[in-house]
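Problem 12. The chain below contains 571 residues. Write out its predicted structure in token notation.
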Amino acid sequence: MATKLPKTDVVIVGVGWAGGIIASELTKDGLKVVGLEKGKSRKTEDYFMVHDELRYGVRYDLMQDLSKETVTFRSNEKMRALPMRQYGSFLIGDGLGGAGVHWNGQTYRFLPYDFEIRSKTIERYGKNKIPSDMTIQDWGITYDKLEPYYDKFEKMAGISGDENPLGGKRSSPYPTPPMTKSPAMVKFVNAATKMKLHPYMMPSANLSETYTNPDGISRAGCQYCGYCERFGCEYGAKADPVVTVIPVAKKTGNFEIRTHSQVRRILRSGNKVTGVMYTDVTTGKEYEQPADIVVLTGYVFNNVRLLLMSGIGKPYNPSTGAGVIGKNYAYQVIKGASVGFFENEQFNNFAGAGSLGVNLDDYNGDNFDHSDLKFIHGGSISLSQTGQRPILNNPVPGGTPTWGPDFKKNSLKYANRALSVGGQGSSMSFRHHFLDLDPTYKDAFGDPLMRLTFDFEEQDRELAKFLAGKCGEILKEMGANHVDSLKELGPYDIVTYQSTHNTGGAIMGTSPDISAVNSYSQMWDAENLFVVGASSFPQNAGYNPTGTVGALAYRAAEGILKYRTKGGLVE
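Solution.
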């Protein structure tokens, strides 16, 4: 029997970026908020002098323990799904701050096209451009409506950048200047400009200079140490929830964080939820936390899994297309596309920052004509310098033996003579890509695991080849003596790391027939339940998702406050 605790105004499930933002906004308005985090507590001091690639980069110290909870995967419905037993394709964060602690800090705004993709594609190319089994849809919100929330997130995080010449209109400049260009980036800019492309500095949550945000939080500038992704920032220069929004919420006195608290069910009565049931993983005791409002702010898989296990919303059925919970899972097509090797130049590749780079969007969204192409959308192309640490980075030209004296010779020669230009392709949703509960495998508590059904499509293969070709052209213009480019995109492989940009499953839209939540991330089927995160993306763009998650979290916080006052579905 679960112990029933005193009721609170709001309970938040998962205290990462979305949870931290919502806690900050609601507690400043006087609401009492309880944040339940299944992992441990964290603070900046935990990362002092721990530039430890083996611990964090190889052994995944900041990630979820897969022996206790994982996902199962299959390429299609005819296959039996098997558990992911070691990290590969994506990395699920764990503990206070979630994936917001180990992210790189690349903070893009999606393009206006991304939010109206179905209608804009049909308007320009006709209905036949969209394959019959592709289930892309408009978000139910436009870029212009979301822009003020992007602006708020960027000012809170102190994003360093310059304006994207092919992006949506901005209400104000980035709050801090762009990061320092390295010599490799100068080469990229010169080559891209010569090719009549439109390069710009990557928007970065790694501060370019000391900054104090509107909440009074001050942070130091980046040291370019090269330990961002998979690592916490010992300087506090990288914006993460632990050093930005969570302290603001705690300072109000209205926020209580309970770590080691695994939420296992959302409790419901009629058309409203009443709270959550969770287990204290240190004692095994179960608790019921009643609340007027419940907010799911966990990772994609965790949000969707909780909804399915709690029987909230209609589960998606790929055979009929009916239902919404689990619908439109999407990912990212490619990250690295081409590597150039330079015989007579060396670069300081060890130095860097998670979001130190140059980007261009000439082949992203619908910024180019797709009439004669076998795909829609596209991807951003960038040269980034995130820090080539020695264990996981060992570039050698194609044709080099994988062991022996020639391998060793080339490893040493090209350690600082190789540059990568990557394409980050969009991922369109398809009818047979979805999330559901695995009928066989369970977690440490006996609850079913999340099952992932996904594979790359012809759309993805065509897009990947296109972007790889463009990346190779840029490297050749930069003067690379040898370029290795992706030739074919094979089947999706959950073993090899690609990106932690999983999206969908509790998607946003204009009605309960086609979506789980409205534009304020409010559940159609339970008006006092809000589901916030990349789980609401109906498909994925050619960018990192965090900036959009942050914007949606600020909008959701506004929606929660409106609901608190008026009730009903927020408009």
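Discussion. The chain has a mean pLDDT of 96. Students who got a different answer should revisit the alignment rule from Section 12.3.
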